[in-house]
Amino acid sequence: MTPKELALFREMATRAENRAEMNRLFAAWIDREFPARQEEEIDIDALYLELIREKDIPMGVVGMGRAEEATRGRSRSAGRMILSAAAIAAAVVLVVAGFLLRRPTVRTPQKAPGIVAAPVITPASDKAVLTLADGRRIVLDSAANGMLASQGGMQIFKAGGVVAYRGKAGGDGTDEGGNVGMNQIATPRGGFYEMVLPDGSRVWLDAASSLKYPTVFAGGERRVELTGEAYFEVAARTGQPFYIDANNVTVEVLGTELNLMAYSDEDAIRATLINGALRVVRGNDRRQIQPGQQASWSSGGIEWQVSHPDMREVLAWKKGEFRFEGLPVAAIMRQIARWYDVDVVLKGSLPEVEFNGVISRKKSVSELLAVLEQTDEVHFTLLGRKIIVEAGKQPDGN
Fold first, then answer.
1. What is the dihedral sign for C-alpha 61, 67, 72, 74?
2. Cβ atoms within 10 Å of 91's Cβ, excluding its own
3. What is the pLDDT of residues 337-349, one digit of tens each?
4. Which among 219, 189, 217 is positioned nearest to 205, based on CA atoms?
């Protein structure tokens, strides 16, 4: 195919009216390329590595089509072929792109006065600062394992990169005046952290997030305040419900696991229930959702919207993945800015295209941007810790 024909083929392959035919073609390709494996369950990660070694293509390719339906639910007499997003990405490279995807790189500008060659920007790591009620600050990533502080009858310690609380014998968690102090743990851009609250609840904080909580949960409720995003495993306590306040929204947790995303620069607050039960409240609008459901309140919205999201996408950050399911480039770049601690500049008119794909969060930012550039829709320039995003150059030269 010529570059222009390839561009046309890509465009046709993503049309909704062509999806059934594309699914049929993908299924036929799988049967043809892997006939010896039809009677066994395939290790897709191993298959993907085999494919990229055989075809010498870059790891973690973002596919622009949705081919997942091609293999979902397909069964075989003696086994089942399971295809993950990685295999779908490989299929997109090998079939849709016709082996013609170029191997782009993130372009670093020529050296000029005041411009330094782009540094290697690494992914987020265990970083957080714990601020105690008395104002003391503890940088957790540099703190040694062991007891960090004693506070109001509670001991704060670090073990295996996790901060936790435990009560001292005879202590009730209050200070000498009988008051309950408020602590805060905050992750910077480029950081994440795990902790155990005084009641035994576990919390995973994503980058650029913070959680404010009491040194002891006294009275008839447990209440914390979140900015950013966190995953909660809330310890069950009869008669003491757990509340999360975030951006004028209250999430009432009834002993459960949930993910709450409440970044101020995102288009909505999203509470996703993994198991158990929870209720979301904003003003007079109250909704209770079931496991597998998500309640979202959009910017400028007037009521809760309840949906069934792709749980793999919701939990991708906790599992160390970027998973893009129909996301525009601006939404992707917000995630990248937080995870890699970089500044992003969107320049000019960007394509109104949705990206689909998955890649490890352990990649450097240059590797991730190179993957996105393979779609030919966007182009990135690194200036120090700044990423400039522009429309990509299409195969026809436009």
1. negative
2. 25
3. 999 999 999 998 9
4. 189
Structure tokens at 358: 């998955």
User: Which residue in 195, 219, 295 sits closest to 252, CA to CA?
Assistant: 295
CA angle at residue 300 from 298 to 305, to 5 degrees? 35
- Going by C-alpha positions, the residue among 279, 290, 287, 292 that lies closest to residue 243 is 279
Tokens representing 103 are 């191997």
pTM of the model: 0.71
Enumerate domains of the chain plus CATH numbers: 3-96 (no CATH), 125-314 (2.60.120.1440), 321-391 (3.55.50.30)
More confident of the two residues 218 and 242: 242
What is the helix (H) or strand (E) element at residue 213, kind and residue range? Answer: strand 210-214
Q: Which residues pair with 146 in a beta bridge?
A: 158
Give the H or E element holding residue 49.
Answer: helix 44-55
Amino acid at 79: G
| Among 305, 296, 396, 297, CA closest to 5 | 396
